[in-house]
Design a protein that fits this description.
82 residues, mainly alpha, single chain
């Protein structure tokens, strides 16, 4: 059986860590660090009701973007150039 081979188990653990950690922050950086506010407004309309003024929607989305950018920078993925 494959799951009894320690080498395959080690490779599986390494791949899982890659997918869970690095690819998550890579997607986060692509969408939030380098994405525009207008794009994010279409992704997350539930944070501010659509009836709210446009400036309030942009303000909330900018705050979310700033927080997630800080997380990406702390992890290291946000330090890469486009």
């Amino acid at each position: 059986m494959m799951d009894k081979d320690p080498e395959i188990g080690a490779i599986a653990r390494a791949m899982r860590a890659l997918f869970e950690d690095n690819l998550y922050f890579l997607a986060l950086a692509a969408n939030y660090v380098y994405g525009s506010v207008e794009t994010l407004m279409t992704i997350y309309p539930r944070f501010v009701p659509p009836s709210a003024p446009n400036f309030l929607q942009k303000l909330v989305i900018r705050r979310i973007k700033k927080t997630l950018t800080g997380q990406a920078l702390a992890q290291g993925m946000g330090r890469h150039s486009k």
